[in-house]
Design a protein that fits this description.
Strand order of the largest sheet of chain B: 1-2
Radius of gyration of chain B: 20 Å
Number of helices of chain B: 14
CATH topology of chain B: ABC transporter involved in vitamin B12 uptake, BtuC
Helix content of chain B: over 70%
CATH class of the largest domain in chain A: Alpha Beta
CATH superfamily of the largest domain in chain A: P-loop containing nucleotide triphosphate hydrolases
Radius of gyration of chain A: 24 Å
Distance between the termini of chain A: 58 Å
Strand content of chain A: 15-25%
Largest interface: A-B, 33 and 25 residues
Number of helices of chain A: 17
Order of helices and strands of chain B: HHHHHHHEEHHHHHHH
Largest sheet of chain A: 6 strands, mixed
Strand content of chain B: under 5%
Distance between the termini of chain B: 26 Å
Shape of chain A: globular
CATH topology of the largest domain in chain A: Rossmann fold
CATH architecture of the largest domain in chain A: 3-Layer(aba) Sandwich
Oligomer: heterodimer
Strand order of the largest sheet of chain A: 6-7-8-3-9-10
Number of domains of chain A: 2
Number of strands of chain A: 22
Shape of chain B: globular
Chain lengths: 500, 313
């Protein structure tokens, strides 16, 4: 056994995040860690990295106990991490990010920048990337940043690699490259702890699967001994049921609530679309196709350059969020930690933030209605929290996402735009989000859903719009579309569809 | 009671510290805590106290305003020039308030338009407004001022009138911060500006308004300053911004934005005022004074750390 975790427990305020978990991790194998949000995966990983100190329990690497909370000791022992939202220095370039903290020295005092650059290019090449490593990371795509994080881990010659949702922001092609590298690492004798919510990936990669639930160890098994349905059952503690295609809608389409005409911005061109009451429209495409940019422009946080947007017949102004919200537009953004939530504020304060103007008596906040509104949303969405007074950062990813949803549902929007609503959300919570979206549409809300999870788009959408390189490439009926059809539209054509 | 302690730990500690200071000072020198002495010494608190109110709001949004002292000077000079030109004092006062409010609004406009940290903008206007004030007045104070005007900062049946003005303002500021939706918006901005924008909070507009309010309050403080001394001096408010910021931070407002309270600011202002006046009273030493304020700041930061609810961040 390379890493041995013994009886780890950790409490955060009123929440027992981890309860006596023991786990053995070996080199030369890929070990998948599964569990719903709030199951304790993040806490376990943070303890592994030394960011969180356990209340009880110990961690041995190669038989030697490691001091809890000593990040450097883990690096020395050959344990490296790639985080969910790769923690990097956005103003530094790839070379600096890879070598930060252990720069190569030249013979005379200074840094051996040339050698570091040479090695960086080598590492990136190994990962199938050929971008300029001297450009600050802030100007690279999320996927490229992820590759830089992976390159950093490779450069450490580490013996054990922890990967937390590494594919969450990657396109299909980039995911394939990542899998190839991961397989190669295993063959080289590196151990990998792999955390992902994507079932396909787990069965494609894992040698062993460990399931956590409510902070407790449930089981460790081989994929063969733990088929998909059983795995989901173990994770949720009940039979959640697999994905089923939404039944074709019976009732006729309602009136148009969102009308977008020739919308053009810096990263998208000439986007025209309609959304009717009660309709769920999926917006598919690769990461970087311009989908989020369109959503942000409609919502008014980014201005647009040309074209127009109407909500229920009312024209919106470019870059005017307040007008968009008054007209009935809501956006659940992709980056819930920075854009969706004020993490330091309480659940209740977050839920009522967008409707606070209505919860007043005279000029002052009316405490009771606010509390009631927050509690009602917590109940409706099944947010797992003792009450509205808990700070939002104490919640797991899935529950945080529900708080963002709650914030906008409380505003009773006509048009709900969801940007990657199930990113980093576990199976059980995903199913709840789907149910909720369907319910909202059934009540007459128009939903525009951006998602990189194709099965999800196919499952939920009445219609599917596909974007590629900043343009709408086509529309498919949700009832009959296949993954292949969507992908065919989403992949930028090498011959250049845009220039035809 | 337990909940009171949970929420207001910092304020309790400040109140205890203030009480301790006054008791200690009273033992060392009973004359210092006598009513007449305190009344006399209170003359020095009002400008700092009034400026601390908008400063608290600005710091809660994650901003800062270094130019309030210079804006005071600008308003004082505007008032003095008006009086010298024969404008009735209330007319000159209105001009002074408009000038000061405009100066603050210009800060806010630049901060939101250029998207630069307010530290940079107000560092620039700290110099610019002071220079403008010195230039317009050629460094000359205007004195004496109309007697009617000076009476507005006087004492009526034992109560200094500036205390009344401040009492009204602090109540308004406290209610605004803790009881209105906008107070909540300011905290959201301070904690996570992106999320505030994505929640439809008019972040840029609020920031501009806050800086304009800071300017307006600087104008008001300038009038009190002038009335109190019977002179409109371009030296008004020199270095006061650091006292004000110190008072706000000692009061428990997080310099990184997000959290803070008006009660804390009120206690911070009192604590700095009493500590400073006592040092002056007993040892009349300006150097020691600075050390005391520095020590209070450090103490406040440590107290804040130790008392902060656990498990945050």
């Amino acid at each position: 056994m390379f890493i041995r975790l013994q009886n780890l427990s950790r409490r955060f305020g009123g929440v027992q995040a981890l309860r006596g978990v023991s786990l053995d991790l070996d080199v030369g194998e890929i070990h998948a860690l599964c569990g719903e949000n709030g199951a304790g995966k993040s806490t376990l990983i943070k303890i592994l990295c030394g960011i969180v100190v356990p209340d009880e329990g110990s961690m041995l690497v190669g038989g030697v106990p490691l001091a809890a909370g000593d990040v450097q000791a883990r690096a020395r022992a050959g344990v490296a991490v790639i985080h969910q939202e790769s923690a990097a220095f956005p103003d530094l370039d790839a070379v600096d990010n890879i070598y930060v903290g252990r720069e190569l020295r030249s013979r005379f005092f200074g840094l051996d920048r040339r050698e570091m650059e040479r090695r960086t290019r080598g590492l990136l090449e190994r990962l199938g990337e050929d971008f300029d490593p001297r450009v600050p990371l802030s100007r690279r795509t999320v996927a490229q940043r992820q590759m830089v994080a992976l390159a950093r881990a490779l450069s450490c010659e580490c013996r054990f690699l922890i990967m937390d949702e590494p594919t969450a922001a990657l396109s299909r092609r980039e995911t394939e490259t990542l899998f190839r590298i991961v397989g190669q690492l295993r063959a080289d004798g590196v151990g990998i702890l792999y955390v992902s919510h994507r079932m396909e990936e787990i069965y494609q990669l894992a040698d062993r699967i460990t399931v956590l639930r409510d902070g407790q160890f449930v089981c460790t098994d081989t994929p063969a001994a733990l088929p998909r349905r059983m795995l989901i059952q173990r994770m949720v503690g009940r039979d959640a049921g697999e994905r089923e295609r939404a039944p074709a809608r019976v009732e006729g389409p309602g009136a148009t609530v969102l009308r977008v005409r020739g919308l053009t911005g810096e990263r998208f061109r000439d986007v025209t679309l309609d959304i009717r009451e009660g309709e769920i429209v999926g917006l598919a495409g690769l990461v970087g196709a311009g989908r989020s940019e369109v959503a942000r422009a409609i919502f008014g946080v980014d201005p647009w350059l040309a074209g127009g947007v109407e909500v229920a017949g009312m024209p919106l102004w470019p870059g005017d969020v307040q007008a968009a919200i008054r007209a009935g537009v809501a956006l659940v953004p992709e980056d819930r930690q920075h854009e969706g939530l004020v993490l330091a504020m309480t659940i209740g304060e977050n839920i009522t933030l967008a409707i606070l103007d209505t919860l007043v008596s005279g000029p002052f906040l009316a405490g009771a209605p606010e509390d009631a509104a927050a509690r009602e949303m917590i109940r409706q969405l099944g947010i797992k929290a003792p009450g509205p007074g808990l700070p939002a950062h104490a919640l797991s990813g899935g529950n945080q996402q529900k708080v963002v949803l709650a914030k906008w549902l409380a505003a009773r929007p006509r048009v709900l735009i969801l940007d990657e609503p199930t990113k980093g959300v576990d199976v059980g919570a995903k199913a709840e989000v789907y149910r909720l979206v369907r319910e909202l549409a059934a009540k007459g809300m128009g939903v525009l859903m951006i998602s990189s999870d194709l099965p999800e788009v196919l499952q939920l959408s009445d219609r599917i719009l596909v974007m590629s390189e900043g343009r709408l490439r086509g529309e498919l009926p949700g009832a009959t579309a296949t993954q292949e059809e969507v992908l065919a539209l989403a992949l930028p054509d090498a011959m250049g569809v845009g220039h035809a | 009671m337990r909940r009171m302690w949970e929420v207001h730990r910092h304020e309790f500690v400040l109140a205890a510290l203030l009480a301790g200071l006054l008791v200690g000072a009273g033992i060392l020198d009973p004359l210092f805590v006598a009513g007449a002495t305190q009344l006399k010494l209170s003359e020095n608190i009002w400008e700092m106290a009034i400026l601390a109110l908008p400063m608290t709001l600005i710091i809660i949004t994650g901003g800062i305003d270094l130019s309030v002292g210079s804006t005071m000077a600008l308003a004082t000079v505007a008032f003095g020039l008006g009086v010298k030109a024969g404008v009735p004092f209330w007319g000159a006062a209105v001009v002074a308030l408009v000038v000061a409010g405009g100066a603050g609004w210009a800060n806010g406009w630049l901060v939101t338009r250029l998207r630069v940290h307010p530290l940079l903008i107000t560092l620039a206007s700290l110099a610019a407004y002071r220079g403008l004030a010195e230039g317009l007045s050629r460094g000359q104070p205007v004195t004496p001022l109309p007697a009617m005007f000076c009476r507005l900062a006087g004492v009526v049946s034992g109560v200094p009138l500036p205390a009344l003005y401040f009492a009204v303002l602090v109540v308004i500021a406290g209610l605004f911060l803790h009881r209105t939706p906008h107070g909540r918006f300011l905290r959201a901005m301070g904690y996570q500006e992106r999320a505030a924008v994505f929640s439809g909070i008019p972040v840029a507009r609020l920031r501009t308004i806050l800086h304009a309010m800071a300017g307006l309050m600087a104008g008001f403080a300038a009038l009190i300053y002038a009335a109190r001394r019977n002179t409109a001096n371009p030296e008004a408010g020199l270095g006061i911004e650091l006292d004000v910021i110190s008072a706000v931070v000692v009061g428990g407002t997080d310099i990184m934005g997000g959290s803070g309270s008006m009660l804390g600011t009120l206690l911070g202002v009192l604590l700095i005022h009493e500590a400073r006046e006592f040092v002056n009273w007993r040892w009349s030493s300006a150097e020691l004074n600075m050390v005391v304020i520095g020590a209070l700041l450090i103490f406040s930061v440590i107290a804040h750390r130790l008392l902060a609810p656990r498990g945050r961040g």
